[in-house]
Amino acid sequence: MVPMTGCTGSCVNGRCINGTCMCNAGWSGNQDIWTQDLSRWGGPNLNCPTPIHLLQVAWAVYLFFAALLWLIMPISIRQQWQKFQDLKNASKVDYWFQHFPLTFLLIIYFLVLPSLMAGSIIKLTSKDLSEVVGATTAATVVFTIVHTISPTIIGTFMIRTLQTFAFSGLDDAASAPALKSFIHAAGWLFVIAAAFIVLASTYPVVSWSKSAFEYQERHKLCAQLYLLQLVVGHFLLSLAAALMGGRVVIAMNGIISNRLDLASRTNQSDILASVASLRRTRRKVASVFVQCSLNGLVNAGLFLAMELNENWFVFIGILFDITPLITTSLSYFSVLSYTTLPTLSFLAHIAGPSA
């Protein structure tokens, strides 16, 4: 591979002097996966596309909210542990990992949020954002961990929620075969989307293994493949989230309708109270799926724009892509209410009276 010789006479946000870009104040050539600053390998600085202060503010805000969420999550974890003990005493579960809300929160608390905070700290403490994905060890390792765990968490959450309500609220048993096919199709669609996003995390590792000075075109190709794969993955994620969310809302509407009918015939106040609770749960579940779908669609569009405009490659590294943001939002819903969504563990409690 023939290395690039340097800038060709013009630099974005800088001046080309003796084949290297001298960046203006507040700008840098460091960017993720396909970095323009090759000085660490003895090469030139090819361009200055990175707004240092803007990205530092973004990482600082991300660190603040991730740390805040991490500090208050023990409240929700403690409550879910108590619920696990109740379920265990009732012989409904034997081990803590069988209580999905508790497992969900523990993985977020011990793996996802610490990785996100570590990534933010690595970025903020590096000079001119010189810790970049695909070029330095710390940023690449944290990036790979986040991209592997976050889609898995989102996938588990969505599929469990879909399965919980798959056959709820249906009076016509003849529709079950078609519904089962839909559930399998939606589930596999999300698995494929998550796999695309997870596998995209391998490109920075490939870039990391070779000098960006001697293999600049290889780094550029990895960045382009990474973006293309994320465009496809997030589009499929958006579609799967919309399908799953719609199915869950339809099923919950059926449960609520059955409860209202039962309440009108029995005049039991506790049934009406349970309907109000189900409506709140439906609103929370729907809002999460809507957020996931819209974020996935917007992110696919942004990545496509980056794919078409090389000067936007700098934004690959902003918050390590939006996938962990979606994961964080799921835990945020849990912490706000000091509990996870009851739909994931208490199907018998929710659907029982309408059976």
UniProtKB/TrEMBL annotation:
Membrane spanning stretches = 52-72, 93-112, 132-159, 185-206, 226-250, 285-306, 312-335
Q: Does the keyword Aminoacyl-tRNA synthetase apply?
A: no
Keyword Methyltransferase on entry: no
Q: Which UniProt keywords apply?
A: Membrane, Transmembrane, Transmembrane helix
What top-level branch of life does the organism fall under?
Eukaryota
Q: What is this protein called?
A: Uncharacterized protein
